[in-house]
């Protein structure tokens, strides 16, 4: 079942005289329960794509539907409503509120949805235990490590059981051990909770944890590869190879 | 790009941030100029001649300078910190510190003296208005007209130039002290980092609240007779001041954190958006501003308190005049009274007359008076000089030969002594002592203050006793007169005509016109109120601006949080609601605390100033609250912009 569908999305910045086209007619479809990563060089438009898909930015033309709901025409208020029910976010720089404890940060999305306190606590315990941060619940973000922060951020993204989770370079600021920890947890959560994850990354290792990798170049889809039943190691090699071709062409120009 | 165009561009870019600064600066220079103009104005003589108004206004202008200097230095500190990145950048591209300082100086020069010039123009334009307000509150009938005063202009320019130099010096020191690296980081190090609430803070928090409450409690006991000597009264006042001010500081330092932490704990980690934006932010930020907030709270309380008290005095001027004069006019000499009566009769102005003989006599009141004070001149109860009148002078009083009633007992007396409900007193005439039965006191005064030394009760005795006293009084203790002739006009509309007559005569003995007296009171209290009012207003505006600037900084710093929250699906409206709650606390806590402080201060001693507490005090408080809220509202509008731009 397709959970997200984007058709011919264009995005350009600037005015009439000085236009910079970042996305040039992309088509993307994501299935329920898929873990997809978007890769590409700097400036290829991958972050813009993620912003557009996650309703933080607006497309110039084209349409995006999530769970059958057309997003492009929505007003600001409807978009906020939409985000709160259907989307979860994980960011490179964690984006935790410094003044809130780990638990308070994680419970934030529930407070908008007016979930009962008892249920909120149950959900918190579930997700925090899965991510191994239950004992950190009363600590402030500046008292925990980067990996723990990112797991907190992940817990916040999962707690309200959104349809899609967007992750923007979630391993970008982590050391390799914490990064692989986090990616293992994400894959686990994806399996257990049947969550859909779209991740932007330029780290091939991170991408190798996914089911599918979409390569973007100059605002268009260059190619995509599926993991299928392959081992992660082999999939990683495939990704490296594709990236090599992608980068090579770029360098020659 | 040349340095000059750099300066102009910077100015253009920053002017939006500075509009309140410009406003506050223009306002204070306008007010200062207006005050100085008043000082040099010849028409002030009428106000100043009688009550040294010139000195008052001069003192006020000095205070005004102090307030403005502190404000400008503080605001400048906030601004230069905000621009530290820019300064670091200039250094990075190879500009010398001196050159940067020159750029900043030039930029500030334009902004500063631009505002001061605007201020002086406004000051000149409004000084007539201010003078009119002054004449209005002091009931001086004079047409306000002003000339442009060169002296005032020069003085204003010199004062503000000096303040400018001080600010530049601060900037110079700031720039000299910084290295490129630290300039980039200055903003983040300015605010305290998020820390766990420690036991120490809990103690401080509880201590703060306790100190404030103790101070309030003692202040409510201040004039209720527990502190009887001047020394203990002074000690109690110092204790109240110290305990409330230190308490306020600890309150911001710990109590706010402590209380909001308690609320947070009770939520078990499940905070709604209002709590996220208000509680969590205030909890950590109030602490770092505690000194500033303490100063603002204390001075606001002082301003509200003084304003309330002077307004109470002003408001009660007519009543006070009535209390001390009793009738529209009174004379202490038959000839003077006759002259005035004839004049009134000629104009056919109707009046009621009362004539009371008053003799000062020595009483032994050991049996009925309990002295509370230890001040030596009040303690001798066996010999107390008291005015005595006959029962026949007062309607509705009928005493037996051996009875006496004390009338006109002032509340203030309670401070020093109290009367028992009954007992025996001895009236000492020159020849013999008369034993009288004391029937108690009542509050209604029967003779003017002139005879009662401002508050001693008057003894009413049986006519036969009075006649005996008349034969045998002690001339040593008599005041300049033994007769009180009071006149009340039947129709208040005649008051103007009568007053005209009254002022056309020159009387030889003590006499009082109640209208004249209340005018004099109004002049004194009106001037006080005027000065305190404008000083208070300046303080309000400058402190409001400082809080606003702080909030601007906070808004910029928290922008990242708003981005996160909006990404999580909170709407701009949700966030704005949270911000409103936050500002309610940010501006509300200092305001409410200031109001409480001034309430207890006024409550403890207001009766020394007048006889109406609530109306004047509540009016002052409401005006203050409304003006103060404007800054809260402005800051919410600023946040609205920040939130809008955050995604």
Automatic annotation (TrEMBL), chain A:
Transport as UniProt keyword: yes
Keywords: ATP-binding, Nucleotide-binding, Transport
Gene3D superfamilies: P-loop containing nucleotide triphosphate hydrolases
Gene Ontology cellular component terms for the protein in this record: membrane protein complex
Keyword check for DNA-binding: no
SMART domains: AAA (SM00382)
UniProt GO molecular function: ATP binding; ATP hydrolysis activity; transmembrane transporter activity
Domain ABC transporter: 4-243
Transmembrane region(s): none
Signal peptide segment: none
Domain of life: Bacteria
Family: Belongs to the ABC transporter superfamily.
Alphabetical list of PANTHER family matching this protein: ALPHA-D-RIBOSE 1-METHYLPHOSPHONATE 5-TRIPHOSPHATE SYNTHASE SUBUNIT PHNL, LIPOPROTEIN-RELEASING SYSTEM ATP-BINDING PROTEIN LOLD
Protein name, entry field: ABC transporter ATP-binding protein
TrEMBL record, chain B:
Keywords, sorted A to Z: Cell membrane, Membrane, Transmembrane, Transmembrane helix, Transport
GO terms classed as biological process: transmembrane transport
Cellular compartments per GO CC: plasma membrane
Position of the signal peptide: none
Domain ABC3 transporter permease C-terminal: 60-178
Membrane spanning residue stretches: 18-35, 55-75, 109-133, 153-176, 197-218, 230-252, 291-314, 523-549, 584-602, 614-639
Source superkingdom: Bacteria
Chief subcellular location: membrane
Membrane topology summary: Multi-pass membrane protein
Family: Belongs to the ABC-4 integral membrane protein family.
Protein name (record): ABC transporter permease
